[in-house]
Amino acid sequence: MPKNSKVTQREQSHEHVTESVADLLAHEEPLDYKSSSLNVGGAAGKKGPQIEVPENDGRPAWNSKLQYILAQVGFSVGLGNVWRFPYLCQKNGGGAYLVPYFILLLIIGIPLFFLELAVGQKIRRGSIGVWNYVCPRLGGIGMSSLMVCGFVGLYYNVIIGWSIFYFFQSFQYPLPWSDCPIRKNGTLAIVEPECEKSSATTYFWYRQTLNTTSTIAESGGLNVKMTLSLLVAWIIVCLAVIKGIASSGKVMYFSSLFPYVVLFCFLVRGLMLKGSVDGIAHMFTPKLEKMLEPQVWREAATQVFFALGLGFGGVIAFSSYNKIDNNCHFDAVLVSFINFFTSILATLVVFAVLGFKANIMNEKCVVENAEKILGYLNSNVLSHDLIPPHVNFSHLTSSDYNEMYQVIKTVKEGSFTQLGLEPCVLEDELNKSVQGTGLAFIAFTEAMTHFPASPFWSVMFFFMLINLGLGSMIGTMTGITTPVLDTYKVQKELFTVCCCIIAFFCGLLFVQRSGNYFVTMFDDYSAGLPLTVVVILENLSVAWIYGTKRFMQDLEDMLGFRPSRIYFYLWKYVSPICLIVLISATVIEMTISPPGYNAWVQELAQERFQSYPPWALTMCFALIVLAMLPLPVVFIARHFNLMSDGSNKLSVSYRKTMMKDMSNLEEQDEARFILGAKSGDAPSSGPGRRAYLTPGGNKTLDPNSLSPNSCYGTSYQNAAIISPPKSKNYRVNT
Q1: pLDDT digits (tens, 9 = 90+) for 79-131
Q2: For residues 100 and 296, is the Cβ–Cβ distance under 8 A?
């Protein structure tokens, strides 16, 4: 019997009690089933009771709302905003790409982000506990999220390691990737052939940084410099998350805000450079015909999906440390729009700098080809009559060269190709789209070599990349540690350190000389399809199994207001349909595109596409299978009662709240017994058979139907209400 029941209180009292139970009942307050905390299907038009969560439930909490928002922003705003979004924008129609991206952000991104924030805040658990609560049979969703977080964290921290290496290399003038190295051959000094065929920044990346092999099959052994950089990266991540949100929350104040300082500095500096306006104009010139291509919408949906970090578990984990009445709807809209405007800001910066670089490359092209033309004029291969009279080779502009180029091409039509002249068109330079490591470690670094005070800007840029990566890694690690710490009683610090040590040794795969190819493999196969499947199952489990109306009622209880009805239709119909289309398009894309990677061929000094060997192809599909394996395994195990439903691992706050509810029910049962009624003779809305808000309206649910195997997050309600034996002359004596 609960300690706070009135009968128990009197038994523990030192007073001599001789009253009859009937006398005791005269002092009892009348029972109001409609206001019972378990009657969530109360009278129409009345606001449901607020869910009470004890303040001292032992779960850590954010120090402030700002700290929480910065954590969510730091997790969602990552390297993809800087080197993926600008590339997609340029590739898919410039300014026209923003239209499908914004539409999909509204109908997929914000609703699903809001859904993850809400379930994490309501249930106050990590991804495993949340989906065990919503639907035990789909509890594998949380485990799949954890698997994907593990795969992504392994290679994502390698990228941070690369940034750390470049960061320390930036403290010298001139920058080490400014010029090609000179090789001494006896008394002769020649430029390194591999560098001369490519460029100084490309050579520094592939040869001096990665020292990459020509195929994925050639391991080449460990790269010592990259191994040390990876070790430093894991030490930083471990220190940031070792105390949970107590340590990571403080780190977020800097790691989330500093990238914006750097981006604004780069934007101001970039706009002062020659050619920056050309880059920005090229970027945002809309190609409206691109909007009709399905591929553009698919890539926009994928970018929205990954930009917000959906399915990783980090969003749910961060939200689980909030107060139960926090306005998570406002948070979802705010973080989503911050993410969107950050992508636009990064795009402005990237193309301002790339516009400057394109002008430098175009001027270099003009000078080199003008020297060829002068040589042909001096050797009488070309006639001086072909040169327009106003052209001055000492101050040759791009327009003058283009005019001269067109004249020579027209007159020498038959032998023009033998002259080896290039058109040197600025538009062609701007159309050389790059993304990922090619943008950050080759194109951007090359542009910075032409900046005044280039080491300063290089230090700032790579320090920004480190902080962007660190914010995302903190969210990824939280998506791993929070579900495990919620589910199992392990020491937080010890578990975090063990995770980082294991991850470092597993990450050695990516710091061998062929490691760059494994980073590409994991990036392509470990997250894309599995995360899309995870998110659609999250959507379906809440909207169709738990019930959208039921979930909307929970939101009203938490927030104090009912969210817009548009969310009902988005969660129930629009988002699932869009996600199914996205999954279908992803599978088709994987089927028709040959699996492979771009290998750096040292002899040719250029990249060449190569197909994966059979063992690597097996590894690709193993990543997909391993990430999604918990979904069918948990479903089958719980369907045949081979696995616990996880109800014994509910959050402390939920258990305390339910104990309070059960205490009230037991007092009600005592009253009915003393009055001579059977414990089962209760009103229809009472504890025996409670009215519950279902998608179809108010429906009476039998508590016995809420079994661990049924997909309702109410397995804790299976506790039986035990009635005392019948007795008419019951007296309480001490």
Answers
A1: 888 888 888 887 787 778 888 899 999 999 999 999 999 999 998 888 888 89
A2: yes
Strands of 307-422 (E only): list them. Answer: none
Is the Cβ–Cβ distance between 304 and 107 less than 8 Å? no
401 within 8 A of 424, measured Cβ to Cβ: yes
Judged by phi (left if over 0) then psi (alpha if -120 to 50, else beta), residue 718 lies in alpha
Q: Which of 2, 39, 9, 12 is nearest to 682 (CA)?
A: 39
List C-alpha distances in Å: 272 to 90, 356, 451.
22, 10, 11
Please state, as a whole number, how many other Cβ atoms lie within 10 Å of the Cβ of residue 553: 18
Do 534 and 421 lie in a common domain?
no
The reply, when asked if residue 472 is annotated as ligand binding, is yes
The 3-class secondary structure across 58-115, one letter per residue, is CCCCCCCHHHHHHHHHHHHCCHHHHHCHHHHHHHCCHHHHHHHHHHHHHHHHHHHHHH
Q: Are 135 and 203 within 8 A, CB to CB?
A: no
547 and 560 in a single domain? The answer is yes
Residue 304 sits in which domain range? 65-176+228-361+435-651
Q: Is 309 within any annotated ligand binding site?
A: no
Q: What angle do CA 269, 272, 275 make, to 5 degrees?
A: 115
Number of domains observed in the structure of the chain: 2
Whether residues 610 and 646 fall in one domain = yes
- From first CA to last CA, the distance across the chain in angstroms is 17
Flag whether 39 is marked binding: no
Contact 713, 135 (CB under 8 A): yes
Q: How many CB atoms lie within 10 A of CB 95?
A: 13
**Going by C-beta distance under 8 Å and a sequence separation of 6 or more, which residues neighbour residue 493?**
242, 243
Q: Rounded mean pLDDT of 168-194?
A: 85
Q: Residues of 536-545 as b/e, b for ≥16 C-beta within 10 angstroms?
A: bbbbbbbbeb
What is the pLDDT confidence band of residue 159, given thresholds at 50, 70 and 90? Answer: very high
**Pair 399, 290 in one domain:** no
Largest CA distance in the chain: 128
Q: What is the pLDDT of residue 428?
A: 77
Distance between CA 216 and CA 210 in Å, rounded?
13
- Residues 6 or more apart whose CB falls under 8 angstroms from that of 117 comprise 315, 316, 319, 328, 331, 332
Sign, Cα dihedral of 101, 106, 111, 116: positive
Distance separating alpha carbons of residues 394 and 407, to the nearest angstrom: 20
**Annotated binding residue 339:** yes
Closest C-alpha to 437, from 175, 210, 178: 210
**Residue 702 burial by CB count (10 A; 0-12/13-18/19+): exposed, middle or buried?**
exposed
Residue 724's CB: how many other CB atoms inside 10 A? 14
Distance CA 457, CA 469 (A): 18
